[in-house]
Write a structure and sequence with these properties.
With 191 residues, the protein is α+β, with helices and mostly antiparallel strands. The protein is built from 5 helices and 13 strands. The strands form 4 sheets. Strands 8-7-6-5-11 form a 5-stranded antiparallel β-sheet. Strands 12-1-13 form a 3-stranded parallel β-sheet. It is globular and about 55 Å long.
Length: 191
């Protein structure tokens, strides 16, 4: 399909999911930590809906980590902080990041190549603190992740100013966009 050799793929009706619950159950069953299982979406908004649904299913209490956004070069008050926080900004984590201990997340930028803390690495949150997260890398190594600043240029956001978002450098990794999933080896997926 990706090379253009196949015009379409017929998906048998028995493989169709009829609800969000059905989709999540078919991909994950009750095991939300199995590697190689993902829901793949075409938009950040769709990935966020699936991720939030799964995070609510995980045991424990979800904690919302709120970003600090700064508008650079914004000349008026037409764009409220609430509006900016509601946007899915490319290359940045969400303004409200739902965190749960035991949840699976993906690192969004290269942090430390020596310890394999790279963009696209899947980690498990082990502890949530005010200024940092303790996460487990695939190697089993435990590391602390502080908040980072993400600059979103006007050309990328479509807004007439730049934005700097300070947030933990991770996103939930149960559902990922087709762009984020590139290079992953999957054993089971839902679309």
């Amino acid at each position: 399909v990706g090379l253009g050799d196949v015009a379409s793929v017929a998906v048998p009706p028995e493989c169709w999911a009829t609800s969000m619950h059905d989709l999540v159950h078919r991909v994950y069953g009750q095991d939300f930590l199995s590697p190689g299982r993902h829901v793949v979406t075409t938009t950040l908004e769709a990935a966020a809906r699936v991720n939030n649904y799964i995070i609510e299913l995980l045991p424990g209490v979800a904690i919302a980590a709120h970003a600090a956004d700064s508008k650079i070069g914004c000349r008026d008050d037409l764009y409220s902080d609430e509006f900016i926080a509601s946007l899915s900004l490319p290359g940045a984590p969400p303004a409200e990041l739902l965190l749960k201990v035991g949840g699976r997340y993906m690192i969004m930028r290269n942090l430390d190549a020596r310890r394999q803390m790279l963009n696209g690495t899947i980690v498990t949150v082990r502890a949530i603190q005010t200024y940092s997260l303790r996460v487990e890398l695939p190697s089993g190594l435990m590391v602390f992740l502080p908040r980072h600043s993400f600059t979103i240029k006007s050309a990328d956001s479509g807004l007439p100013f730049d934005i700097v978002r300070r947030q933990f450098p991770i996103i939930p990794a149960y559902a990922l966009t087709v762009h984020r999933i590139q290079g992953q080896t999957l054993t089971r997926m839902g679309v």
